[in-house]
Amino acid sequence: MAGTTHGEGRLRPPFPPWLTKTLTTLATVAATIIGLLFVTFMIGRVMPIDPVLAVIGERATQEQYDQTFRDLGLDQPLLMQFWIYVSDVLQGDLGKSIRTGQKVTTDIARVFPATLELASLGTLFGVVLGVPLGVVAAVRRGSWIDHLARFVGLIGYSMPIFWLGLVGLLVFYGILGWVAGPGRLGIFYQGVVEPITGLLLVDSALRGEWTVFRDAFSHIILPASLLGYYSLAYISRMTRSFMLEQLGSEYVTTARVKGLGEWQVVWGHAFRNIRIQLVTVIALAYANLLEGSVLTEIIFAWPGLGQYITTSLLANDMNSVLGGTIVIGTIFVAINIFSDLLYRFFDPRSK
Predict the structure, then answer these.
(1) Predicted model pTM
(2) Is residue 68 over pLDDT 90?
(3) Where are the transmembrane segments (predicted)?
(4) In this predicted structure, what is the pLDDT of residue 113?
């Protein structure tokens, strides 16, 4: 037909690619959150704990029991109970803690900064030491430093963290006295620093309380080092694997043939091409420390979210347990979204 241009009539997508990807991401996040809420809801229903007795106690009358049963919405159909549960969570209502008598959100806001501080410092150790170790191990493949890096990673994956924690306390606190003992701060410094961010190292530095800062650092250095060691084992192993793949590429051989220095080849070319992959690895390592520091917090009496959930579980305080689980799951999803955004920032081709 006259006037018909080449390609006319070709089907076009209803939305721009960036909008389609954004909507897909939002739908995935929503489905994940709903799935997390459904799992926690079902856990609360199948646990052999009467939620009514947990609230009013075993000495309550039948009238009190029936009234509380209705107040909790347990007389509604299961689907309606789930809808009420989702509505409350989306409004920030995670229920009331039986153990502390406060809102679960208030308790979590109080204890989470301790876990955040511990996991952040542990991840920092893992990145600062793990990335260079993995790069050098790949460059010096088969050398003693490569074998050392692989041995460090093997020990990190094999040793139980509770055993390393007990040994660390015995050696560095009990015998050598290089670090402070369990807890987050010495008893003489409790309440000295008024919270700003909830992160004790940051708050004490902002307030200029350097004595408190040193005491807090002495308490956190050992548990953070243990978490950092596990993070280091994972990050160094993945960095080594990524670098070996890049160092065996043709463009690296071409760069060396052109006479470029080894430093420029390794860090200017090979390492630049693995930054995108490392973003995801570091984000996953950070998320794993946030959710997996339970044993470390128990061993070191660290007043964080992991110890809070464990103590609540032993006290049959399911509102606190499920609330903490929801928070950890949401944080894990948020970190994955953040890593995906960084991935797109470093690699425009993925947009």
Answers:
(1) 0.81
(2) no
(3) 22-43, 118-139, 151-176, 216-235, 278-302, 322-343
(4) 92
